[in-house]
Inverse folding.
């Protein structure tokens, strides 16, 4: 778990208007920060710069006290949870969660087993370890994706519009689920959405972007009272 500090972050594609224009934002340890704004305002670009999938034109990105501008994504120890959860359909829940540990080759089978069981207990997936993703509910798939993140002891979770493909009912359920798990795990989280309801119900704080500029950072309560 870690703080995320952004100091004067700029992203310039070509020679147009900057996609991200001088954003400074501090995210506290354990905080769930929402990045919200209309399509094209720079949310995904900012998230991708946190993860390391996009170069930073200027400014400093500091995660857990370390400047990460020049660190490869794998060395940032962050967990990105994608819209479709990117689970491996041919692997069981157990193997999906174990996958990053097997990849790293740092862990014995016993250690992997202990970590997978710990994560699946936390996420209430113990009963489903032998299933394949196709046989899980949307909420269970989401938990498997988070399981894969927590076995690695990721410093932070990053969500890019994870619910935008779901119908309204499931979206509401998943929102509740994400909020509950995020609080239970206490993991610093950055969550991108264009949905204001989602922003207001999920966020500890909400960062509002417009045309690459950070317009406002406030708690949902403050935003209700002073929109
Ligand atoms: P959002 O996630 O808020 O919809 P993006 O971060 O995807 O916004 O995009 C911000 C701006 O940067 C947009 O104007 C978009 O067209 C531009 N942009 C995003 N990715 C690229 C790219 N790879 N090359 C050039 N322009 C890009
Ligand atoms: P179920 O989900 O059917 O109740 P469990 O997941 O409890 O079954 O599995 C029983 C045993 O098999 C455990 O000792 C567990 O460590 C092991 N196990 C389960 N799935 C795998 C797997 N894909 N790879 C390695 N060991 C596994």
């Amino acid at each position: 778990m870690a703080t995320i500090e952004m100091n004067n972050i700029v992203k310039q594609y070509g020679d147009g208007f900057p996609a991200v224009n001088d954003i400074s934002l501090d995210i506290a340890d354990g905080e769930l920060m929402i990045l919200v704004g209309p399509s094209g305002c720079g949310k995904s670009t900012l998230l991708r710069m946190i993860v390391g999938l996009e170069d930073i034109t200027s400014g400093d990105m500091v995660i857990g006290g370390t400047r990460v501008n020049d660190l490869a994504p794998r060395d940032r120890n962050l967990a990105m949870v994608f819209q479709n959860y990117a689970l491996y359909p041919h692997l069981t829940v157990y193997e999906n969660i174990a996958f990053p540990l097997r990849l790293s080759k740092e862990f014995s089978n016993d250690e992997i087993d202990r970590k997978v069981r710990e994560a699946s207990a936390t996420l209430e997936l113990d009963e489903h370890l032998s299933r394949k993703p196709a046989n899980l509910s949307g909420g269970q798939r989401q938990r498997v994706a988070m399981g894969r993140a927590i076995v690695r002891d990721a410093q932070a979770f990053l969500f890019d519009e994870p619910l935008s493909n779901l119908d309204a009912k499931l979206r509401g359920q998943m929102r509740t689920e994400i909020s509950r798990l995020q609080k239970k795990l206490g993991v610093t989280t950055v969550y991108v959405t264009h949905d204001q309801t989602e922003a207001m119900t999920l966020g500890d704080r909400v960062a509002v972007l417009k045309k690459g500029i950070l317009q406002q950072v406030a708690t949902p309560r403050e935003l209700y009272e002073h929109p």
Q: What stands out?
A: The first strand starts at residue 4 and ends at 11. The CA atoms of residues 55 and 156 lie 19 Å apart. The chain has a mean pLDDT of 92.
